[in-house]
Amino acid sequence: MSINTVMVIGAGQMGSGIAQVCAQAGFTVYLNDLKQEFLDRGLSVIKKNLTRQVDKGRMQAEEMENVLANLTPSTSLEDAKQVDLVIEAAVENMEVKTKIFNQLDEITPAHTILASNTSSLPITEIAAATKRPEKVIGMHFMNPVPVMKLVEIIRGLATTDEVYQAIEDMTKQLNKVPVEVEDFPGFVSNRILMPMINEAVYTLYEGVATKEAIDDVMKLGMNHPMGPLTLADFIGLDTCLYIMEILHEGFGDDKYRPCPLLRKYVKAGWLGKKTGKGFYEYA
Ligand code: CAA
Ligand code: NAD
Q1: Of 59, 179, 223, 278, which is least packed with CB atoms within 10 Å of its CB?
Q2: Residue 190 and residue 204: Cα distance in Å, rounded?
Q3: Is 113's C-beta closer than 6 angstroms to any atom of ligand 2?
Q4: What is this structure's pTM?
Q5: What is the pLDDT of residue 61?
C-alpha cells in the first residue's frame, strides 16, 4: 500500500496545516475546499509558515519552492480520482462528513484509503457511508499541525491491519508520533481536553473569575502553554461545541453538557481566533 499522492479536504486551520506537512514530506498534495477564496486563505497561511522557516534559516528558499510545487489547489472532488489517500478535514458535522465520504467512495480508485481528521465523531459510522469500511480510518492531527507531534490513529470496526500500518508509516514519514486509540466519542485527546475547556467556560459563566484570571490560573498554576479560554478560541468555539455535543450524546452523561455560554457565543458567530472574536478579540 504505497502512498504518494494525497488529497486534503478543507483548507481551514487543520486542512492547511495537514497539506503543509504532507507537501514538506514530499507527497504530491491536492488541497480541496468549496471555494477558491477558502483555498487562497489556506495557501497564504502555508506560505506565511514556510517563509518564517526560510527567514529563520531553517529552510532554503529553493526548498520552499519545491514544497509549494507539491501543492495543487482543487475545488472539485473529482481530483480525488488520482490519489492514494484522502485526509478529510472539513467541518465537525456527521452529515457533511458522510456526504463527502459517500462521494469519495464513488470517485477514488479501489486502493485509496479514506481518512478523517475528525475530533470526535465515530469512525465506524463515517466508514458505514462507504462500500470500503476496511479502508476508512481516523487520522487525528493536533492544532497547530506544523508544530504538534501527535497524531491519534483510530481504527473503525472494519479497518484492516494493512490500512492501519500504512497510516502509521505515513504518520512517521510526516515526522509525527502515531498513537493508537479506540473508536469512542472524543477518542482520548478530546475526551479529556474538551470537558476541561467546557468547565472553564462554566467557571466564567458562573462569575467565579474573569477570563484572564481563569487562563492565568491554568497557565501559571498548571504550566499549560495556553489558558483554556485562549485555547478554545484557538481551536474554534464551533468545533468545541460540536465536540461537547458528541460527548454528551455519545455517553449520555450530563457531565458533558455544553455550557450555555459556549452555545451563545457560537450562535453570535463569535467562533474565536478564526472570526476575530471569541472570549478575546483578535486584530
Ligand atoms: N502554525 C505554525 N506554526 C506555529 C503556529 C501556527 N499556528 N503557532 C506557533 N507556531 C510556531 C512558531 O513559529 C514557533 O516556531 P519556532 O520555534 O520554530 O520559531 C513555535 O511554534 C512557538 O511559537 P511562539 O513562540 O510564537 O509561541 P508559543 O511558544 O506560545 O507556542 C503554541 C505556540 C505552540 C501554539 C503553544 O501556545 C501551544 O502549544 N499551545 C497549546 C496548543 C494545543 O494545546 N493544541 C492542541 C489543541 S486540541 C486539538 O488540536 C485537538 C482537537 O481536536 C480540538
Ligand atoms: P475550519 O472551520 O478552520 O475549516 C474547515 C474548512 O472546511 C473550511 O475552509 C470549509 O470551507 C471547508 N469545508 C466545509 N465543508 C466542505 C466540503 N464539503 N468540502 C470541502 N471543504 C469543506 O475548521 P478546522 O478547525 O480546520 O477543523 C476541521 C476538522 O478538523 C474538524 O473535523 C475538526 O473537528 C477537526 N480538528 C480541529 C482541530 C482544531 O483545533 N481546530 C484540531 C483537530 C481536529
Answers
A1: 223
A2: 20
A3: no
A4: 0.97
A5: 96
User: Position of cell 478579540?
Assistant: 281
Q: Please give the domain boundaries of the chain with CATH numbers for all domains.
A: 5-181 (3.40.50.720), 190-275 (1.10.1040.10)
| Residue 125: predicted pLDDT | 96
Task: Name the grid cell of 151.
Answer: 497524531
Write out pLDDT tens, residues 230-246.
Answer: 999 999 999 999 999 99
SS3 content of the chain, % helix, strand, coil (to 5): 55, 15, 35
Between the CA of 272 and the centroid of ligand 2 the distance, in Å, is 14
What is the C-alpha separation between 6 and 27, in angstroms, rounded?
Answer: 7
Task: Please tell me if the CB atom of residue 274 comes closer than 6 angstroms to any atom of ligand 2.
Answer: yes
Q: What's the complex ipTM?
A: 0.97
Instruction: Catalytic residue, from 152, 175, 182, 206: name it.
Output: 152
Contact 134, 162 (CB under 8 A): no
Nearest ligand 2 atom to alpha carbon 96: 18
Quote the cell numbers at residue 3.
Answer: 502512498
Closest CA to 9 of 89, 105, 97: 89
Within the chain, which residues score under 50 in pLDDT? none
Distance (Å) from CA 119 to ligand 2 centroid: 10
